[in-house]
Amino acid sequence: MNYLEFEKPLAEIEGKAEELRALARKNTDMDVEKEAAALDSKAADLLRDLYKNLDPWRKCQVARHPGRPHCKDYIDALFREYTPLAGDRNFAEDQAVMGGLARINDQPVMVIGQEKGSDTKTRIERNFGMARPEGYRKAIRLMDIADRFRLPVITLVDTPGAYPGKGAEERGQSEAIARSTEKCLQIGVPLISVIIGEGGSGGAVALATANRVLMLEHSIYSVITPEGCASILWKDAEKMVDAANALRLTAQDLLKLGVIDAIIAEPRGGAQRDGKAAIADVGASITKMLKELSGKKPAELIKDRRRKFLEMGSKGLAA
Fold this sequence. Notes:
The protein is of the alpha/beta class. It has helices at 8-26, 33-52, 56-63, 71-78, 120-125, 133-148, 166-170, 173-186, 201-208, 226-233, 240-247, 251-257, 275-293, 298-310; strands at residues 80-84, 97-104, 107-114, 153-159, 191-200, 212-216, 220-222, 262-264.
């Protein structure tokens, strides 16, 4: 288990409980279960207190936790008959964006998501979830296919932002993001987006301009990272805590503003502590939204989506 900075007291307690049990496994005459159970109870209470009211910066830390389920984990667990589709038919295949045809509860869909990778090798291959222009052009191609065959689109968003490298800019990064956002607004099929970790800048909006936008309880969604915001506004990246507080990037703030439609509760301690439960809850929420949008005509879906984004923010202006 990887512990975050603010979880260090919890790490000490859980570590002591495990040490006692390890000693008991080596010496079967030792009876430590009572002491270990007391430590477990103390750890559970501390975990509850730590996560009861996380501030925005701690939410950022949890959203970026490497142990959280990633896009591939959701696809493997929730979608059957997944058939990956690769390439933008123009330049290259971008491993940061994965997608293809699949079924969820026997419903054929197109699923598209950003994958960060789970270890050093795959993180490099996936470019840490930061897509290049070809990744967004692949997403456009897959949304076109879904629209042609009347398939709902499910997007799983988890990126710190689009890749800002020189090559990406030379190949039209901003244009590709704009085209992907435009395509989200144009397709006449249900489009459901789930922010499963980080929703960073236009790199996230390009896949999240949806009929329904859901966020996991401890995920974040903002126009810029707190570190980037602090560097621009205060010329000091160390002011990221102040920036996180000002950005209103938490699911709770964004629900009040009308930017998202629902929050998906996470297991106590975050999705990283019980990935299976978190994935199951996301699957249930997607299924609920698919039922809500089923039967709507293409023109109605497009109008609903456009109206949603035109009205965005009006709910929370007085807050």
